[in-house]
Structures are given as C-alpha cells and as structure tokens.
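Q: I'm building a small set of examples for a reading group on sequence design. Run inverse folding on the following structure and report the sequence directly after it, with nothing in between.
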C-alpha cells in the first residue's frame, strides 16, 4: 500500500467530493428527483473535488471523460500538477500515482480498499450524478429527498438548467463532494476500447 500524503489525496479524492461551500442559484437538495438507472451517456466534465475524513480535508481539481465503457478521471492540484489518474474499462480499474506507479483491481471499490483500507463507490458516481439509483441493488429515497444506497447517502444540487452542479456522498467515515464547473454530454464517435494506461500496466 502506498502511504504517502500524495496518494491519500489522490485516492480519497480520486473519485471523487466535498466540503466546499454551496454556490448560489442551486436548487435545494429536497427538490431532487431520482429515477431508475439507464444506459450511461458519454460526457466531459471538469470541476473541483474534496474529501473530509476524521476532521481533515483534501482538495483538488478534476477532469472526467466518459466514453462508452471507458471512464477516465484525472486529478490535479489547483496549480495544474497531476496527482494521479483513475481509469475504468471492461477489464477492471487502474490508478496511476504522481510517481507513475500503476495499481490495478477488478473494480474501483476493490482498488480503493487495497490502497486505503476502505471502499469508495467510484464506479457509481456517473449513475448518481445523473440522478439515478444503481439498478439491481437495494436503495431507499429518504424523506428529505436524498438517496441511500451501498451504505452511502447521496444528494445532488442542480444548476438552473437542470445539470448537476454538486454531487455529495456521506457515510459514517467520509464526506465526499464533487463540484462540476463544466458538464457536457458529448457522444464519442471513436471511443477507446480500453484504458490507455493499460498498455503500460
């Protein structure tokens, strides 16, 4: 297990999440609607992420590209330096640290368990960001409108145009937040079939 501070920042953030202040013009979380999972759409997104655990927080920027079955999240410092990359395809999930070392697992939850000792539901972030619950698994819509699934309580806040602005996840240990500064559904004409970094693994 990598024990450096940079790995903690990358992996706990690498997904990504947050304690940043909510922005003006957002719909209240209580008005959010959840629907059954549908086929994932291609998109490009950029924003900020943060995680709080045991009263401590880490922050970074991210860019996220989803092209059919390949999902790539790059995590960068506010100055633009790369902390790492997380990529998931049909063969599993890989993470690359700032030192270039590559880690691999069957899924994102297993990879985070290997690196951190606990699981983060990174493979479901796109589903929850779209306002959907993961199909085929138990879920509950709480009285205040938040979604509960896999032990996480998930909430969304939207822009005035209905696009996701904030995605927040909470459990007993962690508070995770993704703030989207840019989100665009773009269909890929020539999507990759696997993670580019798999050739180096």
């Amino acid at each position: 297990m990598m024990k450096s501070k940079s790995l903690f920042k990358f992996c706990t953030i690498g997904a990504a999440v947050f304690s940043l202040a909510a922005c003006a013009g957002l719909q209240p979380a209580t008005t959010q609607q959840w629907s059954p999972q549908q086929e994932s759409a291609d998109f490009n997104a950029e924003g900020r992420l943060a995680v709080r655990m045991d009263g401590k927080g880490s922050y970074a920027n991210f860019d996220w590209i989803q092209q059919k079955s390949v999902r790539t999240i790059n995590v960068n410092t506010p100055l633009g330096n790369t902390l790492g990359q997380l990529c998931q395809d049909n063969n599993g999930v890989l993470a690359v640290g700032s030192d270039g070392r590559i880690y691999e697992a069957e899924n994102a939850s297993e990879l985070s368990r290997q690196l951190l000792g606990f699981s983060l539901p990174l493979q479901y972030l796109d589903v929850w960001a779209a306002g959907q619950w993961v199909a085929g698994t138990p879920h509950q819509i709480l009285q205040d409108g938040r979604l509960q699934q896999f032990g996480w309580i998930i909430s969304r806040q939207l822009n005035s145009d209905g696009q996701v602005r904030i995605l927040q996840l909470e459990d007993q240990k962690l508070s995770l937040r993704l703030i989207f500064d840019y989100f665009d559904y773009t269909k890929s004409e020539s999507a990759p079939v696997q993670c580019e970094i798999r050739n180096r693994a």
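The domain at 35-199 is CATH 2.50.20.10 (outer membrane lipoprotein receptor (LolB), chain A).
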